[in-house]
Amino acid sequence: MMYRYIRQAVPKVDIKEKVTGKAKYGGDLKFDGMLYARTVYSKHPHARILNIDTSAAEKIPGVVTVLTVKDIPGSNTLFGGFHVLTGDKVRFIGDGVALVVAKDPAIADKARKAVKVKYEPLPAVFTIDEALAEDAPQIHESAEGNIIDNSRHCLIKGDVEAGFAEADIIIERTYETQFVEHAYIEPEAVVAVPDPIEKFITIYGSIQNPFSVRGNVADALGWNMSQVRVVQSTLGGTFGGKDESAMVLSARAAVAAFLTGRPVKIVLSREESMLESSKRHPYRFNFKVGVKKDGRITAMETVVIAQGGGYNNKAQFTNWRASIHATGPYRVPNIKTEVFGVYTNTIYGGAMRGFSSPQCIFAVESLMDEIAEELGLDPLKIREINALRPGDTTPSSQPLGPGAIPAPLLKMLKDVTEKTDFLRKREEYSKTNTGPIKRGIGLAVAFRGAGLGGEALDATGAMVSIQADGSVTIISGLTENGQGLKTVHSQIVAETLGISMDRIVYPNVDTTIIPDGGPTVASRGTMIGGKAMVMAAEEVKGKLLQVAGEMLNCNPSELVIENERIYSTSNPELSTTYMEVVEKARSIGVMLAALSWFSPGVADLDHHTNQGEAFPTYVWGVVVAEVEVDTETGKVEVVKVTSAHDVGTAVNPENIKGQVYGGIVMAQGMGVLEEMEVEDGFVKSLNLDEYLIPTAMDIPEMDVMIVETDDSFGPYGAKSVGEPSTEIPAAAIANAIAHATGKRIRNLPCNLERVLLGHKLTRKGVRK
Ligand code: MOS
Question: What domains, with CATH codes, occur in the chain?
Fold first, then answer.
């Protein structure tokens, strides 16, 4: 298909503002009479609050007010059990117990040290095992045994006992992952601005999901949702992280703004951001797998436990996704997977790019390599034998193949391993690794359910509106988080309307001008949001052609728009222009605007077995990583990562590459460097001087292979790449390290100590 904008490397539409420094981030915003607020955080991981004395802080010149739980006009409890300000007991050290509001941030910072809080420390639990111990102290009254409400999800297919009986060998393994920080470049910043006339408030800020913020701010104020307007400022990264923290901070700022009648701004320091925002959930996987001598898997029984931390509003969702993906993209006839989450008195897990899949893929792809080792097969062979292919069904029994969901995994495996010379290098390194620096090459593969699927109802809207001068406003309920959503949607609308992309203006989300389109998560921006854009643009195009038909005296169905020229396919001489039609439409009272709504509908899924339509479609990925391991220091250098992704149709190939480059580096951090270490409930490093993420000096050579498949679901056949790009490389790197050293690390990250000490399952630094 020949397109003008689709499949083109169009530069990002919002790039100029960003590179020239003109873009306005939450922290840049200023309003007349604006006050600044800072939070007083808990001093204990688990304690009853006996008394909060704010009197000394209130007397400090410049302090306007100090708020505690008693000042919250509406509900103090927000989605997921988080609090605007914690009043009864603190459950982790990021709990906010008071809010100091002052004329400048330095005064607020000084005054919060004068707030005196009396605590009665309570026994606490810091690990999955401690949380599940029989006499464990309970963190949330409603969560018996510290099991997170609704966090249990199972996938049952076939009969695992029969499958194990058929197996020649049974292998059992445990893998664990760590807390990982999003490390977005911009810490959280929000401003709440009360309306001077009406009972109405506007929140601006660094917010990933404006509609969930709107609902929670309304709850905190005790107002209606329609009295709250949330406008997203330019975002300096989020990756799933600016959700719970943005919700809590917006609620605090809104309450302070309402009570003082003045705009109130909260900007987090890096330390506060790392303390208060969510992390990637640590997961533990216990696998029991049955295999035939020829490599065929007969059964997999898996127990997966997520560490939720002190609060939760995501484990029920990340765990559902894990239940579908925990056995990988393999033809496993008999599956029993159980996933659940537990509370601990630690920093908490939430959404982070991948949403449980990087953890699942690390575990299952390590397991596949270990199965191959047991059987004397190579990592490619074991995957070729078991990979899902056309004619198979997914773990939830969705059919794959022609006319159904594409399943290009075998072909991708072949292409990627050939391009990287995988088998030859594997053999060569095994022979030549005699010195202290050892080379290794590793493989990992995955599939991923695209969009929300059975996790929650997926639905979103779009508005396309042509103005009298021919410029086009487009609005989505989904947000530009830096991933390129505005660019991709603009390409889709320009392509559909047959107009120049230069005409399009795409403002940030404002909750008063577009219906709630759900959160910008689950790699759904292009696929679901883009589909809504096509629908709105098609409707407006229909109106343009109707008017053009009247002008040209012909049937609109024979008209097409190309490069802003509207002409008849039967008689190309019969033509007019986009601008002439826009003017005509205006003169005869035709509204050139449309509001669309797209939803794949409620997933047809049995929630006890997770059999049925888990996702409308899937994407597939294959990654090969090459490493050099210094066995004397434990340092891992990631030399090269080759990453192949099925994107359906590549709407913007350069933007896809950008996603994949970033995804690889984020995964490299998870694979070899990053862990938010918690000791007795306290975080060891709360800044990026000690919490190390990959820098420009660490970035490997990267080769991105874009794979297109024929999938009719999304707009122009486009699917997802944002999360897929970061979910696989950590697993491939871990497999490459095991190849290089001959020692398998079953506990991420593969940092210096673990590389030196080899397999070490116990989480370090948990208790002194
Ligand atoms: Mo995302 S991890 O789906 O915000």
Answer: 26-122+186-276 (3.90.1170.50), 279-453+606-767 (3.30.365.10), 459-598 (3.30.365.10)
What are residue 156's DSSP bridge partners? 336
- Tell which residue, 273, 274, 261, 250, has the closest CA to residue 99: 250
What whole-number distance in Å separates Cα of residue 104 and Cα of residue 109?
9
- Give me ligand 1 centre to Cα 278, in Å: 11
Length of the chain: 768
Q: Quote the CA–CA distance of 188 and 192 in Å, as a whole number.
A: 13
- Interval between CA 368 and ligand 1 midpoint (Å): 27
* Ligand 1 pocket, Cβ-based, cut-off 6 angstroms: 240, 351-353, 355, 521-522
The CA-atom distances, in angstroms, between 711 and each of 66, 425, 616 are 56, 34, 11
Q: Which amino acid is at 680?
A: D
Q: Which of 277, 355, 458, 615 should be mutated for ligand 1, with most atoms under 8 A from CB?
A: 355
pLDDT > 60? residue 761: no
Q: Which of 521, 527, 725 to mutate to test the pocket of ligand 1 (most atoms within 8 A of CB)?
A: 521
User: How much distance in Å is there from the Cα of 514 to the middle of ligand 1?
Assistant: 21
**CA dihedral for 51, 308, 727, 743, sign (positive or negative):** positive
Among 137, 128, 55, smallest CA distance to 89 is for: 137
Ligand 1 nearest-atom number relative to CA 520: 4
Atom 4, ligand 1: residue with shortest CA distance: 240
CA-based torsion, 693, 629, 635, 760: positive or negative: positive
Cα 239 to averaged position of ligand 1 atoms, centre (Å): 6
Work out the average pLDDT over 36-65: 98
Q: How high is the pLDDT of residue 766?
A: 34
Q: Point out the ligand 1 atom lying closest to the alpha carbon of residue 521.
A: 3
Task: Using the predicted structure, report yes or no on whether residue 768 has a pLDDT greater than 50.
Answer: no
Q: Answer positive or negative: Cα dihedral of 215, 220, 225, 230.
A: negative
Q: How far is the CA of 307 from the centre of ligand 1 (A)?
A: 17
The percentage of the chain sitting over the pLDDT mark of 90, rounded to a whole number, equals: 98
Ligand 1 binding pocket mutation candidate from 247, 318, 353 (most atoms within 8 A of CB): 353
Q: For the residues of 197-222, what is the DSSP string, one character each?
A: SSS-EEEEES-S-HHHHHHHHHHHHT
**Mean pLDDT of the 257-283 span:** 98
- For the CA of 523, the nearest atom of ligand 1: 3
CA distance 271 to 187: 9
- Packed helices 409-419 and 422-432: angle between N→C axes, nearest 10 degrees: 50
Among 639, 656, 638, smallest CA distance to 704 is for 656
Distance from residue 275's CA to the centre of ligand 1 (Å)? 19
Instruction: Calculate Rg over the CA atoms of the chain.
Output: 27
Summary count for the chain: helices (H), strands (E): 20, 32
Band of pLDDT at residue 251, cut at 50, 70 and 90: very high
How far, in Å, is the centroid of ligand 1 from the Cα of 524? Answer: 10
Output the pTM of the full model.
Answer: 0.97
| Burial class for 373, CB neighbours closer than 10 Å (0-12, 13-18, 19+) | middle
